[in-house]
Amino acid sequence: MVSSIQVADQTFVAGAPERVAEAIASPSKWRAWWPGLRLEVREDRAEKGIRWSVAGTLTGTMEVWLEPSLDGVILHYFLHADPSPDRQVRDLAAANREWRVAGKRMSFEVKGRIEAGRAAGEPAA
Asked: Are 76 and 9 in contact (CB under 8 A)?
């Protein structure tokens, strides 16, 4: 069965996988990045990322997968979910965009924190 909310995105972060994993590990950050969602860790993969079960405004699964690449990682963000039964969504395209933007905000916040002070083109610290 295909979920009505399907998000897949990726962002390169110049930093050690362990640092990026640490930046995504805080439940208080999850609440800020994905308001309205309750995330339960299904699998904490340390420097490879986290997989969650999603409840709240959406029901499904989400993952941040960290793939080593060059002097950093590719941060992959996946969300596969449906609106919760008590939520009516009239515009699925807008809902998909909303969650895609939420994932991009998360990845850019992590990228900004990890790469702070690094000039473009310089190796990761």
From this structure: yes
* Cα–Cα distances in angstroms (integers) from residue 52 to residues 80, 118, 119, 123, in the given order: 11, 31, 34, 31
Residue 65 near residue 80 (C-beta atoms within 8 A) = no
Tell me the pLDDT tens digit for each residue of 22-48: 999 999 999 999 999 999 999 999 999
What are the structure tokens assigned to 59, written together? 């029901």
pLDDT over 70 at 1, yes or no: no
Helix (H) or strand (E) holding 103: helix 92-114
Distance CA 53, CA 61 (A): 5
Residues paired with 54 in a beta bridge: 39, 60
Q: Return the CATH fold of 5-114.
A: Alpha-D-Glucose-1,6-Bisphosphate; Chain A, domain 4 (3.30.530)
The Cα 40–Cα 109 span in angstroms is 22
How far is residue 76's CA from residue 74's CA, in Å, rounded to a whole number?
A: 6
Claim: this prediction has a pTM higher than 0.70: yes
What is the DSSP code (8-state) at residue 15? S
